[in-house]
Sequence to fold (279 residues):
Amino acid sequence: MIALTNIQQAPLDFDGQSRSLAGWTIGAGVDAKVTLPFVGPAVLRAEYLYEGMPTATYSLNGPALRTDVANHYARVALISTIGDKWRASPEVNPADWEGFYFGIVGGAAGQRVSTKGMGVTDAFSADGGIGGIYSGHNWMFGNTMLGYEGATMLANISGNGAQPGAASTKYQDFLESDFRGRAGYAIGRFLPFVAAGAAFGSSEQTDNMIGADKGNVPAVAGTAGVGVDYMAGDRIALRAEYLYSHSLMDESTRLDNDACCNQSRSGNSVRIGAAYFFH
Fold:
């Protein structure tokens, strides 16, 4: 499909230029028919989109800047048909949330990376897509759910910024995983939940000025979030969730100097997924 956008470049004190670009977009998603009080017949949608734009040159009142643009979107929506009147929901068999499940998950994530050393602290932002697998187990006590879950995902969370001693640094987080406890309350075929636990990541970092690189810089963080599962069939559950994470400890980067530096990060992610229940 075709994607349209308008971008303005205006760094520092230069006058910026605005350009309209046409690119391309691709994605995947899932729709589920639901009947809700006050809304009536509706469609619950979860989808992921990647948008690519061509390289463009922007005139900055003298200097010229060539820019590549790529965007990741994770979206959820509730769609109601215009004109359909509300009607009482038909009797719906409650979903069976008990047991083991396994699924696929994808979405978008953003991070704030902070590095301190040599008496200074530098920070920059990174963002990108994530995707992988997740699995867990639920126990039901009436409508109350308690369980655990783990996820392992490949990532392309990248950014550029300064670190102490490395004014131009390329950062790429290539692996994300987590293990969390969950608690929720089933409402018909919906299962709202909260989750908290530990998250683990690994990044590659390069000093662009001298070419020094440091691969596999680990990160250990605490994570917490909220989400909702919807049982679309007897065994297929759809998911949308938000997670926040923050480093539990600083990690040594040792990018240019074995004595420097200590790094922490915080992050936000939005995920959509689908799982199969083995009950």
Notes: Residues 157 and 205 are 12 Å apart (CA to CA). The chain has no helices and 13 strands. The radius of gyration is 22 Å.
